[in-house]
Here is the input.
Amino acid sequence: MKKKWLKSVALCAGSVLFLLGCSYGPRLTELEKRVAEQQQVLSESLRITHENAFKDIKDAEAQSKTSQLVSETRGLSFKYPVKTTMTVSPHQFRGSKSGKFAPAYYNDETKMLYLRDDQPLEMQQGSRVRATVRALLDQNFDLIKYSLQNYQENNEDLSLALDALVDGDCTLVMTEILSQLDPKAKQMTEPWNMSPGTKGKDKKIKEDLKRKAEARKAFFSNKEGSVFVKKLKETGGWEKVNQAYQNPPRSTEQVLHPEKYLANELPVEVNLPVEEITKALGEKWKCVNNNVLGEFGILSLLSHEPSSHDESEQVASGWGGDRLVIFRRPGEEKQLVRVLKIAWDSEKDAQEFKTAYQKFLNDVLGEEGGQQKDEGGLLTCQSKRGTAYFQVIGKMTLAIQATDEALVKTVFDSAKLQ
Here is the structure.
């Protein structure tokens, strides 16, 4: 039906152009080209879209206008129309960071922009713009190839930084477009307010801090990412942002501090003797996590607890590199050992982390029945909840936590700083 309608429109347009050509001569060519281009875009959009792609032509027009607006704002061109389909089943949104609640979502693998058919057009506006931006970036920078080329095993900090460039780009463009309608949209690119919103009992404050820390972590790539991309744009326009896809940020430190990215300040590689520790722990023990926390990971760790919250950002800013390894004995869930080794920018930064981490341990292990000793550069903390060792030498720190003191001692002998 739509194809017949499109054919009729084309025939009518051709007749009008013929009559115009008789009287306007040279102007005919330009008008013909414009009509032909518009007809081709609409025809291609209808051809490549599923039969149920749009409830009516208004949806197609909305996507066409959105694509044009996104292209003009971002300074990039679409190589082909965005394939869009309506979906009745929210399960099709699995894999999107916004989950099934997202009114619109672009899938890098299917190259399809999905729209929830149970959401009115006005409710899809922001999400649709953002999904369209991602489609534009995918067409220009091949987002799957971007991720695969820069992926590094056992480094979630790098993965988060890579996501921050793309998600931050999407969020910034969306914000620039939506702020024309509502100035409040600019708040999406403003820093987080991490101060506790609850006063009174420690338990309430701790719950509020945990909620805010988890929210910040969930939206890091969008929020901090948009601030990062905005800084790049201020430095060298959209071209500077485009170049970042060839040389993306290598750590959350670079995302949090764009000046370190611009100065090419790379993270320090930190290693732990995983095989040696596993062997020392004994039979059945396994390494279940070997990763990099990153500056944002350290910040999140400290900001969770009231005692270390206030200095979390300042302390974490001295991060240079780290390695987190977790060991577990299958079948014994409580038998868990965490080992965190960090390289700091300076000895002063290492000492500041020691002070903050000591406060952190007070909250995590509990002060009731706890005993702390600080002898010869080794801090030990014991309580009913567990045992922790903390060592600092120069710009390096080592933290080990477990429920059993014997386990901590065993691991410390294998991993301790020299």
